[in-house]
Design a protein that fits this description.
Blueprint (H helix, E strand, L loop, with lengths): L2 H67 L2 H23 L7 H24 L2 H89 L13 H40 L5 E5 L4 E4 L1 H7 L13 H17 L12 E5 L2 E13 L6 E10 L1 H36 L1 H4 L4 H32 L7 E3 L1 H19 L2 E6 L6 E3 L1 H18 L5 E8 L3 E7 L31 H11 L3 E6 L5 E8 L1
Parallel strand pairs: 7-9
Antiparallel strand pairs: 1-2, 1-5, 3-4, 4-5, 6-8, 9-10, 10-12, 11-12
Helix pairs in contact: 1-2, 1-4, 3-4, 8-10, 10-13, 11-12, 12-13
Length: 605
């Protein structure tokens, strides 16, 4: 008998049980689904309508309070929005009466709403002094009655949902018990036949398994005997043929492996930068001519301690990082540069580490460390930093003087009355000077950060006071952009030990960035919440967000989005990130709830 026929016969009882369970389960799911649909159609819509009616009536009460407080325009806007909304949801409720007593409650709610509308109309038509009295004497009780009736609708339907859910749960428990009985019966039958078949196949399969292990150990002179099963005999023939071909391949591959090793060494030797090939344990396996020439190493010792101590530590760190993550380690800046005295003078070397994986298994077997010679690039970077610092210092004093002069020119007590057009031009010039001064301060901060001269003066500060200061600082640009800025601080947050001025600068940069990208008439939220490792400050906007591909590079210096022409030089986010790092914290960006971006900064407790 063929193996396929034996397996099909062993599976037949299980297939029958599965078919029965599928049919019965489908009917059960259909019944439970109908019950859930009934709950949603009959009760959930009424619950939703009651919640919305409570929200609308509370908004109408708030509108009345705005009117009492002297904000009639805002009150009228809220009435125009929420009165129709309440009426629409009330009609939905009146058309969805499904529970005993719900019709009477709906009628009572309609009566309370009608009374509220009557009193509200009188309140809106009355003078301010009389309106206040009408609100407390009549409108507030009418509001409470409407809210109470809506709450009765909500409670009635919620109780009905709970009751129907319990009934559905009981049906599900009974269905699960029956399903288990059928499943156990089918499994018992399938297990009996399957065990018999497994026993018949065990002997030849064990022979094949042992032979495969011997082939894996390199013993290729294997010949499997035939069995009484056609498929296993075919497998034995294929196995014997494979072993024969492997014997031929081994003879041919030895010479190819030698040629590949020679090609790899030639490629390494052709590189102008030093290259070290290490084992997973850090032993030196090979090097190129540049390494032997610049570093004066001897590969026969297989040890790294013949390198400069600082360079040895950098190479070891790069190797350990590759072993840990299994991916190349490529430095993003010059912070990992090691300066050594070589046979060709002082050299600045930047380690790049790449994993070496086995071609057959993909297993990590070694690490290649390329020591890139960045001596010239590092000098150019230092010259650039010195130029930025010098230009910023030279511009600070004249910009301060120019800003003071323009400020005095706008003061009529000093310069006398100005022509309106001239005053507008001088005001514009003063704003440009202020923008240039902010740019100069950013450039000076950039210079201090790159030189490592940032010194933190920490002191305990409450998160609420930090965000309040930032909120006050960004109100003017937010008003100009038509954006509302709001605060949300979790209660009982502990104080954080930070450099207050630098934290204010960092959080202000995040807030200004959010305001710049937020559409008009939207809200930017400044939040302080408990984070995984400390206190987290969050800035949410409703702008276009940050694509995932750009979320790493936007924190680099002088990086701006394509839509940010004329919006600074791209230092705000970089400075915020460096301030977070200086405090031992983190900075990142994710999608906000719904739409927009959420920039977050977390500092340790």
């Amino acid at each position: 008998m063929k193996l396929q026929t034996r397996i099909l016969l062993a599976q037949l009882p299980a297939l029958v049980v599965i078919l029965v369970l599928l049919v019965w389960g489908g009917r059960t799911v259909e019944r439970l689904g109908a019950e859930s649909q009934r709950i949603l159609a009959q009760n959930y819509r009424s619950v939703l309508a009651a919640e919305r009616m409570k929200e609308s009536i509370e908004r109408l009460d708030s509108a009345a309070l705005f009117g009492v407080a002297g904000s009639p325009e805002r009150a009228e806007a809220m009435v125009a929005e929420h009165a129709p909304a309440f009426e629409a949801e009330l009609r939905v409720q009146e058309s969805n009466v499904t529970e005993p007593g719900e019709a009477q409650i709906s009628a009572s709610l309609r009566s309370a709403w009608t009374d509220f509308q009557t009193v509200h109309a009188a309140y809106r038509a009355a003078p301010p002094d009389e309106a206040r009295q009408i609100y407390f004497d009549a409108l507030l009780p009418a509001f409470n009655r409407v809210k109470d009736e809506a709450g009765r609708v909500l409670a009635l339907n919620q109780d009905a949902m709970v009751r129907k859910s319990d009934e559905a749960a009981a049906s599900a428990v009974a269905a699960r018990r029956a399903w288990l009985v059928w499943a156990l019966a089918g499994l018992a039958g399938a297990a009996g036949l399957g065990g018999l078949l497994a026993h018949r196949l065990t002997v030849p399969l064990r022979a094949i398994s042992k032979s495969a292990e011997r082939v894996g150990d390199g013993q290729l002179d294997i010949q499997l005997p035939h069995t009484q099963v056609e498929e296993l005999d075919a497998l034995a023939d294929a196995f014997n043929k494979m072993a024969s071909r492997l014997r031929l391949y081994r003879k041919a591959s030895d010479s190819e492996l030698a040629r590949a090793r020679e090609s790899a060494q030639a490629a390494i030797e052709s590189l102008a930068d030093p290259v070290l090939v290490l084992t997973l344990r850090g032993e030196l396996r090979a090097s190129n001519g540049a390494a032997r020439r610049l570093l004066a190493i001897d590969t026969r010792t297989r040890r790294l301690d013949q390198l400069d101590p600082e360079l040895e530590l950098a190479v070891e760190r790069a190797r350990a990082a590759v072993v840990e993550i299994g991916r190349p380690v490529i430095p993003a800046d010059f912070s990992g540069v090691v300066v050594i005295d070589s046979s060709e003078g002082e050299r600045a070397l930047l380690p790049h580490a790449t994993p070496i994986n086995d071609a057959a298994t993909g297993e990590l077997v070694g690490v290649t460390v390329l020591l890139q010679d960045v001596t010239r690039l590092r000098r150019l970077d230092e010259l650039k930093g010195n130029l930025v610092q010098t230009v910023a210092h030279e511009l600070r004093t004249p910009l301060t003087s120019l800003g003071m002069a323009l400020h005095l020119a706008l003061d009529e007590r000093v310069s006398g009355p100005l022509d309106p057009k001239l005053g507008e031009l001088i005001a514009t010039a003063r704003e440009d000077v202020q923008r240039l001064r902010a740019l100069v301060e950013d450039l000076l901060d950039l210079s201090r950060i790159q030189e490592g001269r940032v010194v933190l003066r920490r002191a305990p500060v409450s998160p609420a006071s930090l965000l309040t200061f930032v909120w006050e600082a960004v109100r003017t640009p937010a008003d100009a952009a038509g954006v509302d800025v709001r605060l949300a601080v979790s209660p009982d947050l502990p104080p954080v030990s930070v450099d207050r001025p630098r934290m204010v600068v960092a959080l202000t940069n995040l807030a200004i960035n959010a305001i710049r990208h937020a559409p008009r008439d939207t809200t930017v939220w400044l939040r302080a919440v408990t984070g995984p490792e400390g206190v987290r400050f969050e800035v949410d906007d409703a702008g276009p967000g940050v694509p995932p591909a750009e979320r790493d590079r936007i924190f680099d210096p002088f990086v701006r989005g394509a839509e940010e022409e004329g919006a600074g030089v791209g230092l705000g986010l970089y400075i915020a990130r460096e301030v977070a790092f200086a405090h031992g914290g983190r900075l990142g960006v994710t999608d906000a709830d719904g739409v927009g971006a959420r920039f977050w900064m977390e500092v340790p407790r």
